[in-house]
Amino acid sequence: MDAFYASVELRRRPELKGKPVVVCGSGPRAVVTTASYEARKLAGIHSAMPAAIARRRLPDAIYVQPDFAAYREASHQVMSILRRNAETVEVVGLDEAYIDLTELFSPKSTMRRIATEIRQECGLTCSIGISENRLLAKITSELGKPAGLVVLSRQEALERFASHPPGLVPGIGPKTTIKLQQMGIGSLAELRAHSPTALEQAFGPRMGGWLRARASFEDDTPITVVRETKSQSAETTFDVDISDHAVLASHLASLSEELCRRLRARGLEGRTIGIKVRLDDWTNITRSHTIERPTNDSTVISSAALEMLRAYAPPRPVRLLGVRVASFVGEATPEPSLQEEGQLELGLSA
Prior knowledge:
By secondary structure, the protein is α+β, with helices and mostly antiparallel strands. It has 13 helices and 11 strands. The chain folds into 3 domains: 100 residues, MutS, DNA mismatch repair protein, domain I; 117 residues, 5' to 3' exonuclease, C-terminal subdomain (DNA polymerase, domain 1); 99 residues, 2-Layer Sandwich (Dna Ligase, domain 1). Strand 4 and strand 5 form a beta hairpin. The radius of gyration is 22 Å and the shape is globular.
């Protein structure tokens, strides 16, 4: 979906169309969830950018608080259109999905029809990439934004992106890119041609081979209708670091209640309870504890989380606090993955 959160806001406030719109929280540590293309072009505002920087770059933009209930509803409408047009649809977020086109008689016609139905029924636009595997489909979908449809073969991609930096490929992040540059590797073509042994020595056998495969746009990950739910979590970043354990306990209780509401809605119970704590010096502490019986009781989960907080978190101000449940039993109802409303560290593609 194109600038999904911003597009949903523009749909219900059409007077904002053509203006720079930024969806973000208002706290000092809020980050941008997404921005309209006007805001991107004018000031380079993008997802996960600190909201304070966005406001300095573009003070005259229209800043909108996120409305996740509206985004979930819009996502449900979009995904329903996908599912009625194709048999195998894997939803990987509120604004993104993969479709297996193998058995379709005319894939391009089908995808054009889907885009038209989304525009007519939802008032939103999407960008579509058609290729030989998931990795290339995702990269290809970025080429036509907004509202484009691009078809690209693997061979075409190898030629087209030969001189592009490795960071073009999803999964190759800034730290890996810097390490590759230090090895004299500045493009995908150079990464493909580099010694496998040298890559394995630098990154390890598994990662070294993975990098060469990604640089060659190889990906055999299948499209699956239901993604396995391995864990669910809720976390929040505080506007001001918190030292008071009573206040932290109150936040843990609220996070646990929100998390358990979602677990109960999906019929999930878990045995492993975990916490995530980020201190004022950016030290991250994660701990987990497995209980005898699975639960989605917020009292049980918040109590276990509080015990771990007291046992393992040093007496320093806390910047971020989260609670997690895993080791599920029960039948999961498919739903798009979404980081929680209170969670301000978002990594969203739009």
